[in-house]
Predict the 3D structure of the following.
Amino acid sequence: MVGETRFLCMKYRQEVDTEKDPCPHGSDYCQYRESCVINRLCMDRKDCREKRKTARTKPENGHISDEGG
C-alpha cells in the first residue's frame, strides 16, 4: 500500500498524505472542493469533520477567508 494515501492538492499543487493530514487547508476556500478526493477522504473521517467544523464556526477574524491562494 505504498504511495496509495498520497494525492495532489489541485489548489496548492502539493502532495498530501491523507493518512497524516487529510486536508491541511480544510478551512480555506477551494474551487476544487466538490471534486476533491482529499476532501472526500477527509469527510469520511470523524476527526477531520470535527476539525473543519470548528475552523468554520470559529474563524480568527470573524470571516471565512480566501487568503493564501
In short: The longest strand covers residues 6-9. Residues 6-57 form one domain. The chain has one domain: 6-57. The mean pLDDT is 78.
